[in-house]
Each structure stands twice: as structure tokens, then as C-alpha cells.
Amino acid sequence: MAIWLFMGFVLPWQRVTGIFAPPPDLTLRVIAYNAGETEDAAVIRMIEDMRPDILALNEWPATRVLPESVTDGMYVGQTGGNLVLSRFPIKVIEPLESEHLKPWEYRALRCLLQTHLGPMQVVCVHLETPRHGLTQVRHTPWHAADAMRQNTERRRLDAESASRFAAEFTGPSIVAGDFNTPVESRIYQRYWSGWQNAFSQGGFGLGHTKSLRLHGVRIDHILISPHWRVISAQTCTSLGGDHRPVVADLALRM
After folding, report:
1. Cβ(180)–Cβ(129) below 8 Å
2. Of 51, 126, 129, 184, which one has the greatest count of Cβ atoms within 10 A?
3. pLDDT reading at 75 higher than 60
């Protein structure tokens, strides 16, 4: 039982060992949050209190409008329910397209930002959930094996296409959002282990971002290319929804 409780427990090794690069010219606060079951007012308070430089929101349709008090001086990129809010100008907005996706399935959104140090990529992702397969198992157990195989394949295809999409840009990159998979999963290890996980490097504890009936899981991530180092990372307290925001302070390596 004790081993199960501490699976995924993280120590901030960079802070423990004191390994830091010189102060860079570009530091960022990044927040990733699935706001699907959160009141708009709580999301707005989070933005106003934490003042992110980049915010990746999931389950935020175009009908949910952020007020000018939040967007003033910021730039917005959105496709479907994926939204990127940035203090840097957004020059390109591009949704992920893949043969396995239906026209209304927006799994990833790429925004190319222009900073004073050059272009930077932010990819906001919301990948397939295992819940769909598990629901079919519960309601139609005679189709359980096929349902789980199909769901697992959909999740694999999402991760494969999104990781390729993110890897097309070779400059400083951030991939953030609801991956619907923990770092221990085979799908994550196969397609995302080449990226630095901000919480794994700079967080402390279990960092659960979604509460389940008996326990929590860390399925929302901020991933970064080798151009960045992590100053700190944490999972915030609940805003009233079924997910929790994950926030990371990053510094560009010079």
C-alpha cells in the first residue's frame, strides 16, 4: 500500500542539487488547465491572481468569452475548445490534422509566438481519454475487450500525431494541456519521454491534477524542449472543477 501511495512522488532535483544556469533574458510563467467543469469566475480569478505569460486552456469553447480585464495586452489563439492566451504576439495558429481525427475533433493547437529573442512554439493539447473505453466496459461488458483495444489505439494515435506535430518546430517549445495519461503509462513513455516534464523536474509531491473516486492522477502536463530549464512547478488547489491547474516558471537557456 505504501509503495502505491508514493508512486509518481517527485522531488525537485534541480533545486535540491543547486544546478542552475545563469539568469536568462526570458522567463515565463505557464499554466495548463482543463476548465471544463469550472465556473468562469474562478478561471478569471486564477488568471488575474497568477498572471501567466502563457495559458493553455482545455474545454473552453468560443462561447466562453474571457473579459477584457484578462485579455487586455494579451493575444488569443483558439481552435475548438483549446485556447492559448499569450503576452507575446501570436503569428501562426494551426490545428492538428490527422487521418484518424474527425473534423470536429481538435486534439492539438499550435501557436507560433514572436518574442524579442525570436520565435517560440506553444502547443495546447487535449488528447483522448481512457474514460470512453472504461464506460463501455461498465455498460456493455460483453464488448469489453474490443472497447478497450479501440480506445487504447485511439489514445495511441492521438499521442503519436500530437508528438509529431509538436516536434516539427525545432526552436523553443512548450506543449501543455490535458494529456489524459500519467507519466508512468506506456503511451506517455513512448511518445513524450523525449520532452522535459516541468513538474517532474521542478515540482514536489504527487502533483495530482485530476481527482478520481479513490485517488488522484497527474494527467495534465507542461512539457518543454531542451531550450528551457524549470525554475519551479506546482499543482494548484482545486478551482471547483474535476481538474487542477499545473503552473511552471521557466527560464530560457542562454
Report:
1. yes
2. 126
3. yes
Rounded to an integer, the average pLDDT of 100-121 is: 93
Q: Is 29 exposed, middle or buried (0-12, 13-18, 19+ CB in 10 A)?
A: middle
Do β-strands 54-58 and 27-34 pair in parallel, antiparallel, or remain unpaired? parallel
DSSP string, 118-186: EEEEEEEEEPPPTHHHHHHHHH-GGGHHHHHHHHHHHHHHHHHHHHHHHHT--SSEEEEEE-SS-TTSH
* Average pLDDT, rounded, for the chain: 88
What is the number of alpha carbons within 13 Å of residue 11 lying toward its C-beta? 4
- Output the CA torsion sign for 167, 7, 14, 179: positive
The one-letter amino acid at 77: G
| Closest to 209 (Cα-Cα) out of 224, 196, 199, 201 | 199
How far is 164 from 168, CA to CA, in rounded Å?
A: 6
The pLDDT of residue 145 is 65
- What pTM was computed for the model? 0.87
Distance between CA atoms of residues 134 and 191, nearest Å: 22
204 close to 12: Cβ distance less than 8 angstroms: yes
